[in-house]
Design goal:
2 copies of one chain form a homodimer. By secondary structure, chain A is an alpha/beta fold. Helix content of chain A is about 45%, strand content about 20%. Chain A has 9 helices and 9 strands. The first copy, chain A, has a 7-stranded mixed sheet with strand order 5-6-4-3-7-8-9, with helices on both faces. Chain A has a two-stranded antiparallel sheet with strand order 1-2. In chain A, a hairpin with a 2-residue loop joins strand 5 and strand 6. In chain A, helix 1 crosses helix 4. The radius of gyration of chain A is 20 Å and the shape is globular. Chains A and B meet through helix 1, helix 5, helix 6, strand 8 and strand 9 of A and helix 1, helix 5, helix 6, strand 8 and strand 9 of B. Chain A binds a DNA duplex through helix 3.
Chain lengths: ~210, ~210
DNA sequence: TAGATTGTTAATCGATTAACAATC
DNA sequence: TAGATTGTTAATCGATTAACAATC
């Protein structure tokens, strides 16, 4: 397991993009890719690409570029895309249920082991192969299955207390889908993935464009 | 309608966070908030907050800070959160259906006017108050209803051609949920909102933390 | 070999933070 | 008034881009 020194989040974000491109290229059996080609498909400069790749433990070849299979593997390593991650979803609303049903997660190594809600009416309902469980069962279940990641898909008002419960139960990271800021101890990673915030970025951009 | 000059995306992202905090404060009837308080709740320096707010057309008061209602309104203006946006979802898989059902969007001014898919088996199915329509109907429908935003919730391989169709049909912005890069003319805004990419950022962070 | 592309250093650009006079 | 907090300028820090020798 090769781990680089602390990397700016902006670099990590681009690495996920390179990784997606690399997976496409692999499907097409492209053996080599240059920093310029990578830059063009994503809309960057080749300089940025090469600079970003200095953060990982993989080297290209002059004149040829980067071997796609090797680079893909190196990126998978850095991003943790080569291991299986155990997750639970808290919140069995439309968003939570959709996440629990999203097959793509499983394919990419993110396995959902449970879905929880404190609404009596939702508990016991089937969501694909899972059954919505009571929040009371969450801590024991998370601890027993050694869940890595908790996905927070509850209303903003409940988000922090759900986060606290997940943290106490031993998760190492939180994916926050709720439109509220979550506070966590330094040992627990938190990433926001809020569709509404993205939509607001988008509408801002649209307003600017139509000035 | 006050529109600021081009703003770095990093600033816009923080504005969406301020906006969320402001809405919470408004609910609690807090009348004034200082840059320091805003910074503390989100985990920034007060300097960054004040600097960010120079980008919008709203001024605080010495000794008191910013009037929450006024600041909220100014942010809503910049982010376009004070207007209604018409959207369609393309892709009626789990993710697409969940987005179409997500009530929060409507509450926040994002109205979903249609959901489309090219899978025969999905066409005609009910998704809440909507019915899945054929992709063939999409362009006319989007044009007629003057849809602003297209949400792309299809597999990566189909994403670009769906984007092209949406653009030809006249949308002004795209929210890309697919794990692939989308190319669009400059007049069309594109924002990526890919849960898998966020999960990969998260697993990277977890790996770093457990070094 | 000649030419293309890397890895890396240095230069530029932009964003964040610090500092402080102005102000309520 | 004295004190707190703004808006803004200047200093710092970091990230992106340019440039180029090394190399295959």
């Amino acid at each position: 397991m090769t781990i680089a020194k602390a990397m700016p989040l902006s670099v990590v974000r681009r690495l996920t993009k390179y990784f997606a491109v690399l997976q496409d290229l692999k499907r097409e059996d492209t053996e080599w890719v240059s920093s310029q080609e990578l830059a063009d498909t994503i809309g960057l400069t080749s300089s940025t690409v090469r600079q970003d790749l200095t953060h990982i433990n993989f080297y290209g070849k002059s004149k040829l570029g980067y071997q796609t299979a090797g680079l893909e593997k190196a990126l998978a390593d850095v991003l943790g895309a080569d291991t299986e991650w155990r997750m639970v979803v808290v919140g069995a609303g439309n968003l939570g249920r959709a996440l629990a049903l999203h097959e793509e997660f499983g394919r990419r190594g993110f396995k959902i082991h449970g879905i929880f809600d404190d609404d009596e009416k939702k508990i016991g309902r089937k969501v694909g192969r899972l059954t919505v469980q009571s929040m009371d069962e969450m801590p024991a279940s998370v601890r027993k299955t050694r869940i890595d990641i908790g996905i927070i898909a509850v209303p903003p008002a409940a988000a922090q207390s759900v986060a606290d419960m997940l943290i106490i139960s031993g998760v190492r990271g939180l994916l926050n889908m709720a439109l509220t800021h979550i506070v966590a101890p330094r040992r627990v990673a938190v990433i926001d993935a809020r569709v509404i915030a993205s939509l607001q970025e988008l509408t801002h951009a649209i307003k600017i464009l139509s000035e």
